[in-house]
Design goal:
Elements lengths: L2 H16 L9 H8 L3 E6 L2 E9 L3 E5 L5 E9 L2 E6 L11 E8 L2 E6 L9 E6 L13
Antiparallel strand pairs: 1-2, 1-8, 2-3, 3-4, 4-5, 5-6, 6-7, 7-8
Amino acid sequence: MNKKVFECLASVTAMVLSGSCLADPLTLQDFAETVTGRTFDFSVNGFVYGVERYWPNQRAEWLLDDGTCLFGRYYEWQGKICFIYDEYGADAERLPQCWTFERTDMGITATFFEPNSTHPPISMTPSDTPLACTGPDVGA
């Protein structure tokens, strides 16, 4: 078997095992019903790099590496679920971050939307650990 065919089969096998080619993307309503009131760990290849808590009314709280939290909201745009955080401000250069989300046996798989993107899928796993935000906005 030549290398190109092997790589293609390996990619398809990985997608099937992750469930990503079997699931339909979550709608905004499905996503909100799944995440509201819960906290999720975000990981790539088993490495947890972030934690986010979801509140009612499509609000979210993302814990940064330095212990501060960003507060934001999410909404649907062209079949994607997009996040914008309060700290970006009206004049910020950051654009909303848009994703597709799919249910899997392990939790949720998030795929970042960016044309020609090579970002790997992100695993969202429910967490019982509360966010431990520090900084001026929490009275620490």
